[in-house]
Amino acid sequence: TRTMLPLLLLLLPAAHGIAEVGPRPALTREPSLEGVTTASTFVLDQPRCVFDAYGNAVIWLVVALDKDTSSFNNSAGPGTPETAFQSFPKSVRAYMTLNATLASYPCSKPAGDITVLRVGSETSCAQDESRPTCNGPLPGPGPYRVKFLALEGSVPVAETAWSAPIMLRTAKPLSSISTADSGHNAGMIAITTILSILLAILLA
Ligand SMILES: *[C@@H]1O[C@H](CO)[C@@H](O)[C@H](O)[C@H]1NC(C)=O
Ligand SMILES: *[C@@H]1O[C@H](CO)[C@@H](O)[C@H](O)[C@H]1NC(C)=O
C-alpha cells in the first residue's frame, strides 16, 4: 500500500481533468502591510511563477464563501451572469475577477514592483451589472476562500488549491469592548475576594 498512495496522488489531478499548481493563494505576509484585511478587502500575494507552463492562459481569481467552494464548477464562464460579482453571494456562489495575462505575473521581482493583489478594491463597478468581473468590495466578514484558475480560451487548464479561510475585520462597537473589559475585572475581583475569604478561614 505504500506505493499506492503516490500513485493515487498522481492520478487524482488527471481524473479531475485540470492540473493543480502551487502554492495556494495566501494573505500577504511579506512585506508586512497595514490592512492586509479590512472590513471589505484583503490582500493576496500575486501568483508569480505559478502558471508558467500555460503561456496563453488568462489567470482569474475565484472568490467563494468557505461553505460554497465545493459547488464551484471550473467550467463556469467568467464575465457571465453565473459568475457575476453583483449577484454574490445571493444567487452566485462564486464570482470571478482580477483577470490577468501571464505577463502580469513575471517570475522576477524588479525592485519597487507591486507584487500583491487587493481583492475588493473597486467600488465604482460594485452595482454595475454590465461589469460582472468587477473586483468589488466584499459583502460581509466571510469566511471566504479563493483560488486562481487559468483558462485558455474558455477551457480551464490549471488551478491552485483553495486558500485557507479568510475572515475579514468586523467593526466592533466600543461599548461591547468596554463591557467585556469590566466583566473581566468583575470576575477578577470576585476571585480575589473568594481567595481572601478562604485565606481568612484557613488562618482562623
Ligand atoms: C460543469 O459545467 C459543465 C458545463 O456547463 C458541465 O458539462 C459539467 O457537467 C459540470 N460539472 C459538474 C461537476 O457539475
Ligand atoms: C479581463 O476581462 C474583461 C472582461 O471579460 C476584458 O474586457 C479584459 O480585456 C480582460 N483583461 C485581461 C488582461 O485579460
Automatic annotation (TrEMBL):
Segments traversing the membrane: 186-203
GO cellular component, one term: membrane
Superkingdom as given in the UniProt entry: Eukaryota
Keyword tRNA processing: no
Endpoints of the signal sequence: 1-19
Keywords: Membrane, Signal, Transmembrane, Transmembrane helix
The protein's name: UPK3B protein
Natural source organism: Peucedramus taeniatus (Olive warbler)
